[in-house]
């Protein structure tokens, strides 16, 4: 523990009772978690298999595991749980599923599957309304409410309608032996809170809990933490209220305050030294975040050198901006021998990456766009996964419907509708109904033949699960299902086919190392949890990502593009006067930079072929001028624009009275 400062060390040595480490960016919170796990194991206070650490993404879980592997000798870390809240919930349900009436091999519905169900329950409504209904259900689930509790809490007719829809939606999931992402937290909470014995058993199983980025836990996750930790509360939470950027997804930083009430013995340790950023970057970040209302302002300091001034670039438009960024990166890469992976370009919205990608490609700069590959959303990958889901879970009608039509066979929409009707009548899932001779006889001969051929393949694959490893099963599935042959016929040339086949091979690789004879459904479920942000090939490439995805990371050189009013802060937040969260987002972005930082904005953009003038982000005005170096900006024009901004506001008010 030599490489920890005194408060960090105190946080590591505090092993009994609840502890909250509340500290600013780059102060070593994540490092405390890693060192503390190492300490718990090495000192013999807690065996690895009784420790669970919760991270915000699967990617950070992987990183933490790698860091620990280096820290600990041999297989000392064997059995340690490091995962996200969702993955922990999944692990829990895979053991305790019976308590909520789920069967082994249950499916996880992704956002599209969930939306499809709601669409089905609300025939004829617009996609926007489906999304709205989905987010109402999700909000109830994130608040930890069951359908009955949501109904009891409903105040208005609209809320009652939403609660009724929630109940019908949930009934569907139960029929399909499926859960959605939100259920992975809500159901474990329901089981643990309602069943003392199961709760005691899990407290025995998890002797010590650690949570990183806990400012972004939602209410259901906080309840899960509480019920797992029990009244003794042997846990360490680390977080920074100034980096809470997921309110839109239900995160509630007030949980940090709630924690002090729920655990009167809660010890709070603050860390004040930042080890990441140059002093200028840190001073700028401190000045910015001081504009948010605070109960206690954190005083972060750093003994790093001052470093270069923060460059503020005014650009003509976003293409010009992208060219400048790409050129600068290319220049530094050559001039300072900096590896590509030292650079990161951050933006508010994913659409902003297009111009950057073009400019980087032009200069042959290798880059990796986080969240851009959408691997799990590719058609062939989704097809293979729904086959797997069906093999593991015969009740999953959604998977059945997708699998039976991929590849297309002689079973048309009318036959499927008829099959669904008969299945409902018989009270069995569609895949079971399809096995019944009586049902097949009621269908046209071609459909019946197609269906029974399909059923044979599924049954055959189901038998193979006991013999083959998960990877081999998937390879077999690709052949037997006809997916590969179909893919070949869809592609115009061999190269195209190989490209898409590579996706299926990659999927099989993800299953590599899975147990032979294990439950493929469990693996498929785990895979469904991997979000798009989690796939990072980690190579020597420039990183492009959204500010949200950059949480917890650090880079030597950071560029934040699109620092314009309306982009960052986002238009909607400006309209709603909700700037604090946007400012935190900017704070997260700035504090990713270790050595140098560039903030850039465009003077104009095109909207519907019209040129529109843009204003520099108001956050730039909140940074201390002494830390900045403005390039390309014209102070006179700047002042003019500010006047314009003020008079635009006046004009809007005037217009209301005209
Ligand atoms: P964030 O709020 O962005 O998640 P954090 O508080 O989790 O940041 P870390 O990522 O743990 O901070 O640490 C930031 C950097 O400082 C890392 O490179 C880490 O290795 C380094 N660091 C942390 N503590 C120390 C220390 N005591 N001595 C030297 N370096 C340290
Ligand atoms: Mg961290």
TrEMBL record:
Gene3D superfamilies listed in its UniProt record: 1.10.10.160, P-loop containing nucleotide triphosphate hydrolases, PCRA, domain 4
EC numbers, comma separated: 5.6.2.4
Keywords: ATP-binding, DNA replication, DNA-binding, Helicase, Hydrolase, Isomerase, Nucleotide-binding
Top-level enzyme category: isomerase
Source species, domain of life: Bacteria
Catalytic activity: Couples ATP hydrolysis with the unwinding of duplex DNA by translocating in the 3'-5' direction; ATP + H2O = ADP + phosphate + H(+)
UvrD-like helicase ATP-binding domain boundaries: 2-278
Cellular component aspect of the GO annotation: cytosol
Record-listed ATP binding positions: 23-30, 276
Annotated Pfam families: UvrD-helicase (PF00580), UvrD_C (PF13361)
Domain UvrD-like helicase C-terminal: 279-552
Record PANTHER family: ATP-DEPENDENT DNA HELICASE REP, UVRD / RECB / PCRA DNA HELICASE FAMILY MEMBER
Family: Belongs to the helicase family. UvrD subfamily.
Protein name, as recorded: ATP-dependent DNA helicase Rep
Lineage: Bacteria, Pseudomonadati, Pseudomonadota, Gammaproteobacteria, Lysobacterales
Gene: rep
């Amino acid at each position: 523990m030599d490489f920890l400062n005194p408060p960090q060390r105190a946080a590591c040595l505090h092993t009994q009772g609840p502890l909250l480490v509340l500290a600013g960016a780059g102060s070593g919170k994540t490092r405390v978690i890693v060192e503390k796990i190492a300490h718990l194991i090495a000192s013999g206070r807690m065996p690895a298999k009784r420790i669970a650490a919760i991270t915000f993404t699967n990617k950070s879980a992987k990183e933490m595991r790698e860091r620990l592997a280096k820290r600990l000798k041999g297989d000392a870390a064997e059995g340690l749980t490091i995962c996200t809240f969702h993955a922990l919930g999944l692990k829990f349900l895979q053991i305790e599923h019976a308590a909520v009436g789920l069967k082994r091999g249950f499916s996880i519905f992704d956002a599209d599957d969930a939306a499809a169900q709601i669409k089905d329950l609300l025939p004829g409504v617009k996609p926007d309304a489906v999304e709205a209904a989905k987010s109402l259900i999700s909000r109830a689930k994130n608040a930890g409410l069951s359908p009955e509790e949501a109904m009891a809490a409903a105040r208005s007719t609209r809320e009652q309608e939403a609660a009724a829809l929630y109940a019908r939606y949930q009934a569907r999931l139960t029929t399909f032996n499926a859960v959605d992402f939100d259920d992975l937290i809500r159901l474990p909470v329901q089981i643990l809170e309602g069943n003392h014995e199961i709760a005691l058993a899990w407290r025995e199983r998890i002797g010590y809990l650690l949570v990183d980025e806990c400012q972004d836990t939602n209410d259901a996750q906080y309840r899960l933490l509480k019920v797992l930790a029990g009244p003794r509360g042997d846990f360490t939470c680390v977080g920074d209220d100034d980096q809470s950027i997921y309110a839109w997804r239900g995160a509630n930083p007030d949980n940090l305050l709630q924690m002090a009430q729920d655990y009167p013995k809660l010890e709070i340790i603050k860390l004040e030294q930042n080890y990441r950023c140059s002093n200028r970057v840190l001073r700028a970040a401190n000045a910015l975040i001081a504009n948010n209302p605070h109960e206690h302002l954190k005083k972060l300091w750093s003994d790093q050198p001052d470093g270069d001034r923060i460059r503020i670039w005014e650009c003509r438009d976003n293409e010009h901006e992208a060219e400048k960024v790409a050129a600068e990166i290319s220049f530094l890469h050559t001039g300072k021998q900096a590896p590509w992976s030292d650079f990161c370009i951050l933006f508010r919205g994913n659409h902003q990456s297009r111009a950057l990608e073009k400019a980087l490609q032009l200069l042959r700069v290798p880059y990796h766009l986080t969240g851009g590959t959408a691997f799990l959303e590719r058609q062939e990958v989704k097809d293979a996964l729904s086959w797997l889901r069906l093999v593991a879970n015969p009740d999953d009608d959604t998977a059945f419907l997708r699998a039976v039509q991929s590849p297309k066979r002689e079973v048309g929409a009318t036959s499927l509708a008829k099959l669904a009707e008969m299945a409902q009548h018989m009270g069995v899932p569609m895949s079971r109904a399809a096995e019944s001779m009586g049902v097949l006889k009621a269908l046209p001969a071609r459909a019946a033949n197609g269906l029974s051929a399909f059923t044979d393949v599924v049954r055959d694959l189901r038998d193979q699960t006991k013999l083959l490893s998960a990877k081999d099963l998937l390879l077999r599935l690709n052949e037997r299902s006809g997916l590969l042959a179909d893919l070949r016929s869809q592609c115009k040339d061999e190269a195209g086919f190989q490209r898409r086949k590579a996706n299926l091979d990659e999927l099989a690789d993800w299953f590599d190392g899975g147990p032979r004879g294990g439950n493929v459904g469990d693996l498929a479920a785990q895979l469904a949890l991997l979000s798009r942000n989690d796939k990072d090939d980690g190579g020597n490439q420039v990183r492009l990502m959204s500010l949200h995805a950059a949480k917890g990371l650090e880079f030597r050189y950071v560029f934040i593009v699109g620092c314009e009013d309306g982009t960052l802060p986002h238009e909607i937040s400006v309209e709603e006067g909700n700037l604090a969260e946007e400012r935190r987002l900017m704070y997260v972005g700035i504090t990713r930079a270790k050595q140098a930082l560039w903030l850039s904005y465009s003077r104009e953009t095109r909207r519907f072929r019209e040129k529109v003038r843009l204003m520099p982000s108001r956050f730039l005005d909140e940074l201390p001028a002494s830390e900045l170096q403005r390039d390309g900006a014209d102070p006179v024009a700047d002042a003019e624009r500010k006047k314009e901004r003020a008079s635009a506001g006046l004009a809007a008010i005037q217009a209301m009275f005209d």
